[in-house]
């Protein structure tokens, strides 16, 4: 793995879950949605196509693993999986559990309402659960 620096905005908005073979796994600090962010641990990446073929395959498997965990943990009606990068250029993939009738349904979650941060004891338990489910 090459040098890796997490974008300061991602660092400020998330809690560290742990590292998969390619990606750092982060929990978005917004309890409104069960929301993981996967960040490949290589500097200078902006797009999925910036990864080589092997790394793209690993990323897809890690997205699938995170998606399964998020869907099962949140009993999601739908998953939103996106690599937008409009606000944070560093390549990262959002995996968000959605429920019919949630505060942003059926639109995107971004900018709908202020984040509802996790309580300290809640986030500690959730991070432990996520680590177990992701086998970290």
Would you summarize the structure shown here?
One of its GO terms (molecular function) is catalytic activity. It is built from three helices and five strands; from the N terminus they run H-E-E-E-H-E-E-H.
Q: Provide mean pLDDT, rounded.
A: 96
Estimate the global geometry from the Cα principal axes: globular
Element-level helix/strand string: HEEEHEEH
Name of the CATH superfamily: HIT-like
CATH architecture: 2-Layer Sandwich
Q: Unreliable segments (pLDDT under 50, ≥5 consecutive)?
A: none
Helix content: 25-40%
- What is the CA-based Rg, rounded? 14 Å
Strand content: 15-25%
How does the helix and strand content classify structurally? alpha+beta
Question: Main sheet, how many strands, which sense, barrel?
Answer: 5 strands, antiparallel
What is the β-strand count? 5
Helical element count? 3
- Spatial strand order of the main sheet: 1-2-3-5-4
Distance between the termini: 17 Å
Text of the CATH class: Alpha Beta
Domains (count) = 1
Key features?
136 residues, alpha+beta, HIT family, subunit A, 5-stranded antiparallel sheet
Description:
The structure is a single chain. The protein is globular, with a radius of gyration of 14 Å. It is built from three helices and five strands; from the N terminus they run H-E-E-E-H-E-E-H. It is an alpha+beta fold and 136 residues long. The protein has one domain: 2-Layer Sandwich (HIT family, subunit A). The longest helix has 22 residues, at 53-74.
